[in-house]
């Protein structure tokens, strides 16, 4: 017995016929080793010892993954690639808010295209972070986002004014956002298919259970997508309001300026007249912190109807009311040049009397210094002094304006005004709600960025070359002068802007918008008449 066992072992070691040779393997295993592996190859050889008695892998095995399929890897690669491309576009749009790259100037606010790109990045991030946890809820919510973006795209393309304001940058951004949303739906569907295929191949059945981690991933992704739906719904409603506002008729015309990069709104009331062979001056209105049409132009119309003046023109600085946004950066001197070009293209000629208020007085003073022969009078209503420009140039104010601009496409205040306060198109375009518009916010941001640098240098230079014999009238706010000693000192300093100061009035109980009080309007009209009379002494012949 012992000998037999020893002999068997020895025979085995000597390669007797009782044991197969080492290279003698079943044909199925030889075929398995020779066959080029692909995504359908089993992970274990047929004769290898399987982890389960039925020959399938455990569902929790890491090898059970949709990443085994090249199609799933393909979609993941391009999803990451699209995320990188979209991020670079996002950075470019962010920079263009502050400095417009060549060919990328938006005549609108520029905040809508930025918001669409943020939405595209959000969808791609959700797709990448929760790539291996596909869910029907994700596909449904993302499909809703894609449909809403398609509606936005139709609105932008169908409404001529919005299409012009958004330009190719805005159109490309909304189209890209819609394509990305559709891509995310397709990607989630492919991953779900790949997950099912691999589970059937490697475990014998599709897995219907989810781990706690997977449930949390699906819940988080779905909540984020629902938030995105509400965001797009608000943006769509805001676009609808913008489309409705474009039907509001305007008085005057839009005129291309700055090499036809954008248009500004200019309107004139009254006819050109003359007295004793001399052309009567045309009043040029320059509003302050709000569009001219809101209330500043109203008192000028009353003066026209009363016969105090025979003709006046008003315009909207870039970004205000019906005017387009200008490329960034944009200073007060650039606004003065835009006004000069608009007047020239519309055939308007001097002499001019400049009437301005608040921050608009900076633009008027620069305009005056660049048209010394044509400007025959200056009237400043509670004007901003160049030494106080730092008040509107603070970094904190700039950041708030930028943040407010970024969320302006949601139109929360505008929608609330329509639903609960009865705000009209007039309110939103040039009235009490004009400050909520993206163009207005961008104009304020542009003023903030260069107020204490480029704009200040321009107005300081303008003061040095201002003609000393130009008649000057200043009307100041009593409330501002009483509550702000520095403002009062600077108002007094502006009285020495020329050597021909006709009057300086501080209107008691009048706010910064002096014309909002009866006393303010009365004094302003009276002083304007005095200015017209004084300007007649230096009129240019027709």
Automatic annotation (TrEMBL):
Domain of life, per lineage: Eukaryota
Keyword match Transmembrane: yes
Extent of Basic and acidic residues compositional bias: 22-42
Transmembrane intervals: 77-99, 111-131, 143-162, 168-186, 215-241
Keywords: Membrane, Transmembrane, Transmembrane helix
InterPro entries cross-referenced by the UniProt entry: AB_hydrolase_fold (IPR029058), DUF2417 (IPR019431)
Pfam families attached to this UniProt entry: DUF2417
UniProt region (Disordered), positions on chain: 1-55
Keyword Kinase applies: no
Protein name: Mitochondrial integral membrane protein
Organism (species): Lepidopterella palustris CBS 459.81
